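Workshop exercise sheet. Pairs work together: one partner reads the sequence aloud, the other fills in the structure field after running the prediction. Swap roles for the next sheet.
Pair: D.N. / O.F.
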Amino acid sequence: MFAVWLMFGVLGLPIRDEFGLTDVQLAWITAVAVLNGAIWRLPAGILADRFGGRVVFTTILAVTAIPAFLVSQVTSYGWLLVFAFLVGFAGNSFSVGIAWVSAWWPQDRQGFALGVFGAGNIGASLTKFIGPALIVAVPAAGLLGGLVPGGWRFVPFLYTVLLLVMAALTWAFTPRHDIKPGVGRNLGSMLAPLKQLRVWRFSLYYVVVFGAYVALAAWLPMYYVDVYGLPLSQAALLTALFIFPASLLRPFGGYLSDQLGARRVMYYTFAIMLVASGILMMPYGYIVLTRNDGSTSEILPWTVGPVLFTILVFAMGCAMGIGKAAVYKHIPEYFPHDVGAVGGLVGSLGALGGFLFPPLFAYVTAWTTLPQSTFFVIFAVTLIATLWMHFTVVSMLHRASPELTNKFEHDSELTGVAS
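Structure field:
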């Protein structure tokens, strides 16, 4: 489902060439797919709690196959936007799976279990690996006399087949007896937790670790091609180096959250992201010194080559993978009976961040003419989330222990330890 949802990250480049699109037009293709993968997450999570994950997940798989096939047949930019939006429905599978997995596992193991499920995000890298090879391998005229489309169109056609196969396998091999924590509850009671401010704070965290991940997974291939002049196949592989840790480390992030606490893990996550994005957002250039005799010299040249860029993006991917699990570790702890609704809203707003980031990247880059401004956007949003989290934690600790308001260390008389 994630491979289908984010397939335009690689397909966008041959699509741009075929339809003669601008970068902003291309960004909107990715954005509308991400949008539709966000707006239905809340109702999808509620439906999973009420009717069971097996029924809802199978339905989403089967329904998504229709627009995937239509993408392979599109002939105009207008219809491509429509079908890209519809195929983005695949992204709503995440909140269904979160509710489904949470219902089956006890609280002390939910962090790891949700992390394992969330590792399915690695599907976002599937197109990065197979897309360029398939585009080249399958002739543009297609196969079987044109019955099977060729070029970039073969990829959504292949995903159509895979979606139908996975729908059949999910229905056949998952437990027929499902756990349905939302049975017998009215909609109002299921939505009541959404009034709490912490739900919206968790959502902002998820915008940072997931929304930015989705956006970069789609944006990085074009960044590598346009900024560093790399071929699409190499750009896709380097993007996969970002996607892999952002997905595969999710179980480890869940384990760390179980052992150390989700809050501490979030501090580490945001710190790494701030450092990496802070370096990446710095404009390239140098300082010019002018002497009294009119001569000049250039000092402190600054640029980020493809190697350093890939290392920093890899670090961000590691932080995002661990942070995504930490965010969702919070949810069953605070809302054990409302994982579908709360997880759906958090996932929805996080994915909406993935919708807003690509056009924002494009507009800010066009305004500044600096491609590095992409990472200024990520830095700014991460900083806001970090400050909100920190002030919330400080306020909570102050309410719990007001006598420590003006103390920086433990009182030696109370602890028995010499200062």
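Discussion prompt: The longest strand covers residues 296-302. What would you look at next?
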